[in-house]
Design a protein that fits this description.
Length: about 130
């Protein structure tokens, strides 16, 4: 058995690499615009989602263990600091998580990976809250 065979497979590879992450991000932002249940989340974003789509795609590639596109362009993500100008409370956190979970289901993510990502997304999204309630 080689050393590589003992390494865990990254979520980036498990999900299917860049094409699968791009599909997930596109579905996420499409749902944000389409579903009234995500209105508070949509309101936090500006009128054009093109930049947000690219930034989330670049970030998720690296966060899941793939190419560090975001870091190459902008440096360390500093997620909390970069999101501080936006109102993020429990409602926005919960809508982000629900929208991402629906997106993961819609693009057909493996149940085990989906559960792993759901837990990781919750930790990050909860940490991003900067408003009470």
């Amino acid at each position: 058995m080689t050393e590589d065979e003992n390494k865990p497979v990254s979520p980036f590879l498990t999900i299917g690499g860049e094409p699968a992450i791009r599909a997930l991000v596109e579905r996420f932002y499409d749902l944000m615009e389409l579903e009234p249940g995500y209105a508070a989340l949509r309101a936090v974003h500006g009128p054009d989602l093109a930049s947000a789509r690219d930034k989330l795609f670049w970030f998720l590639c690296g966060w899941m263990g793939g190419p560090q596109h975001y870091v190459e362009r902008f440096g360390h993500p500093r997620l909390r600091a970069r999101h501080m100008p936006f109102k993020i409370g429990t409602l926005e956190r919960d809508q982000w998580l629900a929208c991402m979970d629906q997106s993961m289901g819609d693009v057909g993510l493996d149940a085990g990976l989906r559960e792993h990502l759901r837990a990781s997304f919750f930790q990050t999204a909860d940490w991003m809250r900067n408003q009470n309630g």
